Amino acid sequence: MIFGVYKINICSFGVVQKNRNKNINNRKMKTTIFAAVASVLLMTSCGDGGIYPQNEGGGKAVKQIIDKNFDGEKQVQELTIKAKDELYGELGTLTAVYWDGDKQMEDVFSSSDGMKESAETFGSKQKMTHLPKTKTVAIKEFDVEPIPYKVGEAAGLIPEEYENYALADYQFTVGDDGKIKQLFTINTTKKGEGKTQNGRMVSQNYYPFKFKIDDAGKVVAID
Hints:
By secondary structure, the protein is of the alpha+beta class. The protein has one domain (about 5-220). It has five helices and 13 strands. The strands form two sheets. Strands 1, 3, 4, 5, 6, 7, 9, 10, 11, 12 and 13 form an eleven-stranded antiparallel beta sheet that branches. A two-stranded antiparallel sheet has the order 2-8. Strand 4 (about 90-100) and strand 5 form a beta hairpin. The chain is globular. Mean pLDDT is about 80; it is low at about 5-45.
């Protein structure tokens, strides 16, 4: 279920220290919070009022962005929600992928810059032949509101030696059968593993776990 070990460099010492202190309090609430939504281990107060899709109300906030910035009737084959950083889970981008003739296009909303102009995807520009042309659905058909609860369910499947659950990405795709599929990644840190410092740079290992939603709507770990 675990997908490798990665290292992230953290330059903001204040955020690192605050996050460590916050973990001490929130770990006591793990059992009750996981039953409903993902544990609020992220330092939502350390940002600038950003959106954290995994936190309670985060799914609704993402839906509001989609309703405001995207054409809900537009037929797309994929919607990807991606965090700004590996370990803090704040919303970075929303990307909708679709085809316009022979070109694969993407509409991107950035939490920093707002809505960008539609652009051809990198793979399409490079004439990559493996790009799938699956069936499509209207963007409004992607149900983003339950994301916090799905992440909370997934967090309960992660071994106890890991902590600090941060949603790295959440992807909706449409299969050849027309069914919507959901895949997502949670990044974690390992208990007892400290950070390493080299000058002003602090490094932190992190461990990604991948999940999907099965046909019954349950969260399943991907081996």
